[in-house]
C-alpha cells in the first residue's frame, strides 16, 4: 500500500538565491558556510513516509528544523525543493485555494499554545473548524460535543477558555482538530507548554484516543522520552537533516552516530523496551506448556522484571501460538538497563557484559 503521507527530498532555504543554495547543499556544502552568505538552510534533504494510522514523531533540539518541516507538510510553507504527497496527491503543485480546502477538511493542526478564541465558549472553539467549512449549526454542535467528550471535557461545553486549566485548554485544541474528522493531524510541540504531570496526562489521552480513532499523526517534540512514549516511529533531526529514523527500540539499541547516542543516555529504558527487544532468540523447542509464568514478545520491560523476580530460571517468551521464541535470563535484564555511564549493555554468551548500540 502507498503511504498516507510522503516527504521526498524536502529543502527549505531562507535568504538570497535559495535555489542556488539547494544545489550547493546537494553537493555537500556546509550549513554554516551558507549562513556566512546570509542564507539559512532550515530543512535539508528530508525524506520519510508515514503510514495510515501511524504516530510519526519528529524529534530535535531548538533550531533543528522540525517545525519548519511540519509546516511544509500542509502547505503553510512552500518547499524550496522537494515534494509532499498526501494520499498520492502532490501538495506542492496545488493552488492556494485547493490547499486551504485541504487544510479545512483533511489536515488539522494542534498548536503548542492552544490558540483558543477567548471570546468563544469551549463548544464554539471546538466547532470553529466546522464553522469555517460551512457546516450547519446543529451538526457542528453535535460533532464538537462528541469531540469534547472524547477528550474528557463533557460538561464544560458552555465554559470560557479562561475558566479552564492549561491541560484542559489543550484538550479543547485537540477536540477542535478531532471535530473536523481530518485524516491527518499535525501536532507542533502540542504538550511542551504544560506542566510535567499534565503533559503525561495528555500523552495518555492521545494514546487512548488513538486506540479508537487510528488517526495518522505527525507529532513534533524536543523531548526524547515523549517521542519514545508516543511514536510508532521516530525521526531524529539535527541542523536541518534527518539523521536517523526508526522505532523507539531501534534508536535506543542501535543509535546511528554519536549525536543520537548522546540523546539516549538519559532515557529510561524500562519504559521503552519489551521482551522482544531483550530476549535471547538462540533457543530450542517448538512449544512451551510449562506451568510457570511466561511472557509475550510485547510484555513491557518493567513487567518482565517482575516476572523474573518470581522465577528461579530465565523467563520463557511465547508467541500467540504458545511457541517458544526466546528466553530472558535475569542477568540480561540487568544488562539492558545500562551501566553507570548510561550506556546500553547486554550480556555476552558467556555471561559477561558488553556495550551495544554505540556508533
Automatic annotation (TrEMBL):
Residues 5-264 form the ABC transporter domain. PROSITE patterns: ABC_TRANSPORTER_1 (PS00211), ABC_TRANSPORTER_2 (PS50893). Pfam families: ABC_tran. One of its GO terms (biological process) is response to osmotic stress. GO terms for cellular component: membrane. The keyword Nucleotide-binding applies. One of its GO terms (molecular function) is ATP binding. It comes from the Bacteria. Keywords: ATP-binding, CBS domain, Nucleotide-binding, Transport. Belongs to the ABC transporter superfamily. This is Glycine betaine/proline transport system ATP-binding protein.
Amino acid at each position: 500500500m502507498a503511504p498516507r503521507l510522503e516527504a521526498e527530498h524536502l529543502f527549505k532555504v531562507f535568504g538570497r538565491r535559495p535555489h542556488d543554495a539547494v544545489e550547493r547543499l546537494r553537493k555537500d556544502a556546509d550549513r554554516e558556510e551558507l549562513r556566512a552568505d546570509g542564507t539559512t538552510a532550515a530543512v535539508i534533504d528530508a525524506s520519510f513516509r508515514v503510514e495510515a494510522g501511524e504516530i510519526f514523531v519528529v524529534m530535535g533540539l531548538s533550531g533543528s528544523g522540525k517545525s519548519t518541516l511540519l509546516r511544509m507538510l500542509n502547505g503553510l510553507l512552500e518547499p524550496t525543493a522537494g515534494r509532499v504527497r498526501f494520499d498520492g496527491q502532490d501538495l506542492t503543485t496545488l493552488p492556494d485555494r485547493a490547499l486551504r480546502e485541504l487544510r479545512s477538511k483533511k489536515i488539522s493542526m494542534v498548536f503548542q499554545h492552544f490558540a483558543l478564541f477567548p471570546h468563544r465558549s469551549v463548544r464554539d472553539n471546538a466547532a470553529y473548524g466546522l464553522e469555517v467549512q460551512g457546516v450547519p449549526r446543529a451538526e457542528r454542535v453535535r460533532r464538537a460535543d462528541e469531540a469534547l467528550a472524547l477528550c474528557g471535557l463533557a460538561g464544560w461545553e458552555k465554559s470560557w477558555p479562561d475558566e479552564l486549566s492549561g491541560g484542559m485548554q489543550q484538550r479543547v485544541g485537540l477536540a477542535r482538530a478531532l471535530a473536523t474528522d481530518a485524516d491527518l493531524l499535525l501536532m507542533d510541540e502540542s504538550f511542551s507548554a504544560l506542566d510535567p504531570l499534565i503533559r503525561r496526562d495528555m500523552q495518555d489521552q492521545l494514546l487512548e484516543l488513538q486506540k479508537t480513532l487510528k488517526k495518522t499523526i505527525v507529532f513534533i517534540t524536543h523531548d526524547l522520552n515523549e517521542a519514545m512514549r508516543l511514536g510508532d516511529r521516530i525521526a531524529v533531526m539535527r541542523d536541518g537533516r534527518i539523521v536517523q529514523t526508526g522505532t523507539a527500540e531501534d534508536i535506543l539499541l542501535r543509535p546511528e552516530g554519536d549525536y543520537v547516542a548522546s540523546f539516549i543516555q538519559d532515557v529510561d529504558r524500562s519504559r521503552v523496551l519489551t521482551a522482544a527487544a531483550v530476549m535471547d532468540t538462540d533457543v530450542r523447542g517448538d512449544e512451551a506448556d510449562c506451568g510457570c509464568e511466561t511472557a509475550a514478545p510485547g510484555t513491557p520491560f518493567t513487567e518482565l522484571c517482575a516476572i523474573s523476580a518470581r522465577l528461579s530460571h530465565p523467563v520463557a517468551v511465547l508467541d500467540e501460538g504458545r511457541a517458544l521464541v526466546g528466553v530472558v535470563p535475569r542477568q540480561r535484564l540487568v544488562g539492558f538497563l545500562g551501566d553507570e555511564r548510561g550506556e546500553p549493555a547486554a550480556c555476552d554468551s558467556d555471561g559477561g557484559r558488553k556495550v551495544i548500540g554505540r556508533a
